[in-house]
Every structure is written in structure tokens, then in C-alpha cells.
Write a structure and sequence with these properties.
With 233 residues, the chain is of the alpha/beta class. Helix content is 32%, strand content 26%. Bound molecules: adenosine-5'-triphosphate. This is Putative ABC transport system ATP-binding protein.
């Protein structure tokens, strides 16, 4: 099987006419299966734009993004939806359903895909919440959880369906040190155990130590690509 993410000659623009602005310039990148890659760079350097292009959340305008063997440039909307279902997204603003418990919020990610019977879905949701340190909170409503706990529920929801690729935009911003490191260690474990490939935007220097690879964007260009320590802290 080839690399799960293969990008070549990727450029992207926002706006039209006078306001047209290029956000990405001719990006080439391959990401290995099971790896944890960190994307860093100054504000406005194009990190989120790149992540959302990989995640099939915007149309590829120029160049090629091959995700899990499928070319995204020109991909029809129904196929985009199917592709997104194979991914796990951890973005800012957790978008939890306020009327549903933590367990139900996580279960929804399985229910949508019709996987397993309800009891098995509950067990899967509880297991993932437990891995994120929320075993005691599975029945809580979001209103009764802290910001960091809500973020961890959102992370559990993104991971419970065993996605092949996880895309995360500053997932640790709302987390304390232990929760942040725990989350990144979990992504690493999933990478080793299941081949889950993770790409994470972060400004968090503590995370860098755990990454397999560190990419730096500046003004829409990939200017740095170095191995992380990948250390087990
Ligand atoms: N929807 C949009 N419309 C117009 N311009 C946009 C849009 N989204 C992003 N841009 C511009 O594209 C460039 C890259 O933005 P992007 O959000 O990808 O950067 P970033 O590195 O993720 O920044 P941050 O760290 O602040 O989130 C910036 O100049 C930004 O202003």
C-alpha cells in the first residue's frame, strides 16, 4: 500500500479579482502510514488551509492531493463525503451536542456509520473515553464538563470509529499538560498499533518531542521538514 497522503504541486488561493490572495505555493509532501506529523508555522502561514485540503473540506484548485489512494482534485461531492467518513477530525470548537451525554456524543460517530449493535457501540465509546481519562464522566452532559474535558470528548468522538487518517487543528490548546501529552501519546499508540496516520497543527512546543516528523510552513511554503524526537516521554 502506498503512502496515505501524497501531495504534489498543491497551490491554493482565496478571494477573487483584486482581493485574490495565494495561501499555498506548490506544496510537495508525502506522509507515511502510521506516522504522527506536526505542522507548525506562524499565524497565516497556511497550516489550516493545508489541513482542510487534505481533509476533503475544501476543493483542490491546483495540483494533486492523493488521500488513501484517491485523487481529491476534481472529486465529486458524494465521493468527498465518503472519503471524509474515513477520517477523524479534531478541530477547535468541539461542537458537542448539548442534549447528549459524553457517551452518546462519542457513539454518534459510530451510529452514523451504522457499525455494531447499540451495546457494542456504548462499550466502544466508553473504552475510548476511558483512554482519554474520562471513564468517570461518560454519563455527563457537556454543560457539566470543563473545556478540557469537552475537548477530550471531541477527541474520543474523532477516534472511536478507527479512522485511517486523523487531522487535528490545535487539539491541545484547551488541554492541561498531562491531558495534552496523553492525547498525543494515544495518537502515537494508534499509529503503531493500527497504522493510523495523524497530522496535527500545533504551536505547543511540548508536543514536538512526541512527533515523528515536524513540518514548518511559512507564507504558504513548506520551508522545514525534519524528524521529531519521537520520544516516549
Ligand atoms: N476563508 C478565507 N478567505 C480569505 N482568506 C483566507 C481564508 N482562510 C484563510 N485565508 C488566508 O489564507 C492564509 C492562510 O490562512 P490559514 O488559516 O491557513 O493560516 P494558519 O497558518 O492556519 O493560521 P493560524 O495559525 O492563525 O490558524 C492567510 O493569509 C489567511 O488570511
Amino acid at each position: 500500500m502506498g503512502d496515505p497522503i501524497v501531495i504534489s504541486g498543491l497551490s491554493h488561493w482565496f478571494g477573487a479579482g483584486e482581493a485574490r490572495k495565494q495561501a499555498l505555493f506548490d506544496i510537495d509532501l508525502r506522509v507515511a502510514r502510521g506516522s504522527l506529523t506536526v505542522l507548525m508555522g506562524p499565524s497565516g502561514s497556511g497550516k489550516t488551509t493545508l489541513l482542510t485540503l487534505i481533509g476533503c473540506l475544501r476543493d483542490v484548485q491546483a495540483g494533486s492531493v492523493r488521500l488513501l489512494g484517491t485523487e481529491l482534485h476534481g472529486l465529486a461531492p458524494p465521493a468527498q463525503v465518503r472519503m471524509r467518513r474515513r477520517l477523524g477530525f479534531i478541530f477547535q470548537g468541539h461542537n458537542l451536542h448539548e442534549a447528549l451525554s459524553a457517551r452518546q456524543n462519542v457513539r454518534m460517530a459510530l451510529g452514523v456509520q451504522g457499525r455494531g449493535d447499540p451495546r457494542a457501540q456504548d462499550r466502544a465509546a466508553e473504552h475510548m473515553l476511558g483512554l482519554l481519562g474520562l471513564a468517570e464522566r461518560v454519563a455527563y452532559l457537556p454543560a457539566n464538563l470543563s473545556g478540557g474535558q469537552k475537548q477530550r470528548v471531541a477527541i474520543a468522538r474523532a477516534l472511536v470509529a478507527n479512522p485511517e487518517v486523523v487531522l487535528a487543528d490545535e487539539p491541545t490548546a484547551a488541554l492541561d499538560l498531562d491531558s495534552g501529552l496523553n492525547m498525543v501519546r494515544l495518537l502515537r499508540r494508534l499509529g503503531r498499533a493500527r497504522g493510523t496516520t495523524s497530522v496535527m497543527v500545533t504551536h505547543d512546543p511540548r508536543i514536538l518531542d512526541l512527533a515523528d516528523r515536524i513540518l514548518t510552513l511559512e507564507d504558504g511554503r513548506l520551508v522545514g521538514d525534519r524528524p521529531g524526537k519521537g520520544a516516549e516521554i
